[in-house]
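FAQ: What does the model actually see?

It sees only this:
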Amino acid sequence: MLEQARRFMQLMAVGDFAAQWGLLAPQAQQQWPSAQARTAMLEAKFGDAPIASFTVGTPTPGAAWTSRENLVTVSGVWQVPVDVTFREPAAIRPQAAVAAYQQLSLALTPPLGREKPQVVGEGPASLDAPIILPPQVLATTTRVPILMYHRVAPYPNRAAYRTIYDWELDYGLTVDPTEFQGQVQYLAQNGYVAISLTRLADHLLYGLPLPTKSVVFTFDDGRMSPYIYAVPVLRKYGFTATFFIPAGLVGWEPTKLPLRYLTQAQIGQLAQTGFWIEDHTLKDNVPLWSVGGAELQQLALDTRTTLESMAHQPIQWIAYSGRWPYPSAATAGPAEQQLFQALAGMGYVGGVVDASIDSTTEMSQQLWQLPRVRVGPNEPLATFVANLG
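And it is asked to produce this:
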């Protein structure tokens, strides 16, 4: 087991990514468009971030590995911790990636007879490994709808709310489970493939080809309803998703509203079974572009650290609180540009926007201003399909 893990990491350290392909299990190979595409991406990613050394830890048997792209699970694997040291750690951006690459692990199948273990979880070589920003980004144009959901549940009962405002607010954030089932079923039957934001970044930053019909699922606010109603549907079709969690609302059950928020245990379970946990500030009630200094650290950096301790995953993406201050997601002023720089220093690589202009007509020129398609209540399937672009 250790021999195979060391061999895999030795090849990575010298940049021989092509030779790694033969060590991969079929489930790992199926994550990639091709062996050549994998090699090209990893050469682009680590060409400016060369590895100086690595260590391999003690293998642990009986684990399970789940793909964070198609939710395929392989049980009974051996988990092998790996620690990567970069040749020039001070040049790595974001700096938080340096520590993240010291806390990854490989997953290997157990040896069967004379067959050697195979690598299913590629750790630092995975297409889902933490993003390392290249010194320069080539101009790339792609079209990927990023779907934005909040509450997936039966429509709220007016009698359960103290005020019409509270009820209308929740109603406007709701997609009925039957509607959601129809939307996901349409995507699956028409050749769409759900990808993560990091997989999208692999394409934009390193040139890894995307599936022809790619789509990203995102869920804001950290409510429990998508966990109950949306996650089983996504699992049925092998669709991954990103959950943007307000760290300060984890486990909260307000006494005056019929709301429940994801618990720490549920967040951990989502992360372990192939879903992505990312940041949605502290309580999703303060626009980040209006604050700075210690308050921004409390609303962002501290929340990233908290969520990482719950999900045991690096947190690199953020969903800004509230509506974007401009009609278009492509517009940003001095306050937003300053925010982007501050967030980059905290370890984030990009953010998703809730803008007023229809996202099907929007384009972003950087990862900090990714527009999304808001999926609304009682939305006809034809409208949903049209909004895919």
